[in-house]
Structure formats: C-alpha cells, structure tokens
Amino acid sequence: MHCMDWKNKLLSFGATLTVFCLLLCGCGGEEKQTIQFFAMDTVMQMTAYGDNAQDGLAQARDTVETLAVMLDAQKKDSALSRLHSGDTVSTFIQYPLNMAKHISRLTDGALDISLYNLTDAWGFYTKAYRVPEPVEIQQLLDKKGQWDIDGNVYTCTEGTKLDLGSLAKGYAAAKAVETLRNCGVHSAIFSLGGNVQTLGQKPDGSDWTVAVTDPLSPQDTVGNLHVGECAVVTSGSYQRNFTRDGKTYHHILDPKTGCPADSGLLSVTVLCEDGTAADGLSTALFVLGAEQTAALYKTTDIPFEALLITEEKEIWMTEGLSALFEQTNETYAPAKILP
Fold this sequence. Notes:
Layout: H1 3-20, E1 22-23, E2 32-39, E3 42-49, H2 53-70, H3 91-106, H4 116-122, H5 134-142, E4 147-150, E5 153-156, H6 165-182, E6 188-192, E7 195-199, E8 208-213, E9 221-227, E10 231-236, E11 241-244, E12 247-250, E13 265-272, H7 275-288, H8 290-299, E14 305-310, E15 315-317, E16 325-327, E17 336-337
Parallel strand pairs: 15-17
Antiparallel strand pairs: 1-8, 2-3, 3-6, 4-5, 6-7, 7-10, 8-9, 9-16, 10-13, 11-12, 13-14, 14-15
C-alpha cells in the first residue's frame, strides 16, 4: 500500500472511530495512551491506561506486526506459506491452526482455511474482482487440498494453500493483550478492523461499550454491547464486496459451494473470551445461518454469545446477550432471542 493511501485510511479511521466502534467516555483519571498503525490490511487502534501503557502498546504493536508477517498467506516467504507436509509447526502458528481445525469440526466444515485459491479466483486478494464460471469453481473445490495438524506436526496434500485470515486478527489481538498484561497494563481496548478486544475493565471499573455496526448503513449502528474483558468480532457481507450486473458478491465463501455464503444473514457479531475462537466463529456462523447457529450454541464446547442481523432486518441474539445488548436503531424490529 502506498504511503498516501495508508495516511488517508488513518485519517478516515480516526474521524469515524468514535461513532462506529468504541465509546470510551468516562474512563477515569489514569493516563491514556493511544497508537494507530496499519497491519493485516486494516487500520488498527490500540488504547491503554496506566503508567506502563506507552511501553506496553509499543510491545503490543510489535506482537501484532510480527504475527501479521508470519500469518500472511499472500507472502511466499511467510511462516504460513512455507509450511510443507511433515513440517514441525512454530508455536506461534500452532494455536490458530488447531483452533481452525476445531471450529471446522464443530461446524461441519463451515470454516475452511484451505480456500485460498477460490478466494483468489474471486479477486478478493487483488481487488481484480470477477465472478468465476461454475466449472472453474467446481475444479477449485475438487483440488483445494486437505490438511491436518497433530500436536506440532503439519500434514497436507500437494497443492494445499492455507489462509488464516478468518482467525489472524483475533489471534493477534489476543496475543497483544497477553503482551500488555505482561507489561503490567490492566486496562486496554483494541480495534483491529472488525475485531474489538478488551483487557480488564475501564479504569473506573465500569464496562466497555462496543457499538455494533448497521450492515445496511455501515456509518450507523444498531446498538451497543456493554462488556468486560472479551473479544467482540463482526463478520458481514458489507465489509468486502463487489457488484456485477446488479448483483453484489461478498468475500465470505461457503466451503460447500465455493460461492459467497447465502445464509440469509447480513452480519454476525460474536462475543467470546478467546479472540481466536471469536474470529473463526464469526465467519463460520455467517455461513451456517441463524437456525444452525442456535443449534451450535446449545452444544458447542466453545462458550460464545452471538448477535445475528438478517436480510429481513431482524436482530437475533443468544440468550446470554440479553443483559448486554442495548438496541438504539428503531428501523430494525426489537431484538429477539434465538429459539
């Protein structure tokens, strides 16, 4: 990305962050430090409080930037791209790979990190957008490859190419929080694209307020979540898409069809203690849709809460969000609990 593009993104991000992402008023008297930078194809903002905030944020940024390089599927020399069958996997990559494998199993393959070639065919990496022919999609599905990780040993079929983009920001945010905690910081909030990660409570002991974007009007919100320490991650059709012949195609592909997921949802927001799991689940639940999300919520071994916005302008949420979500947008029907 050119320097001027990066600066313009920062200016735009700074102008809209308060409205769209985080409401940080009333944070007490502790010293506040904030940094902004560009990584993982998005502008990131980190805010921390306390005597060690400045040093902690510098080290947290280093953590994110290091992981951004290691997990970049588009860089041929990244740690992820250099994985070959039989390799011993670096400890920095083991966790997101194992989480991807676990969520894929829980969701009957709704999360699939081996769709790199399909995503590339649609043009979502290069922004040279196109609609592949059905025969091309099927060919890419047929040869997308298989992979596995057992302990720290990675195996795959020839031609397998992985993309951890559906978990990378969540994982990076979780590791950045770990870095801050090790630096003695106990109150912080990050915004990494569609990912929000908090550390502790606000300095005054109150909850953080995280706004949920209106997918039909992304400059607006549908309401606020009042949360303690957790990850809040949103996946939506509005985040990356293009239009051809009057039809809009988004970047969240259904692994079964190779096409943009058609589950009746516009966005999924997941709240989870584990940032990596929250990131992966937000993608998987978008593919699954409301009915299967409700079923998974009752059976999963990964505790999570979710808020789903449908194409019919309905808001559905899991039971645990009823005390945390405050709806502010009256163009949507009042939020309901998933059955």
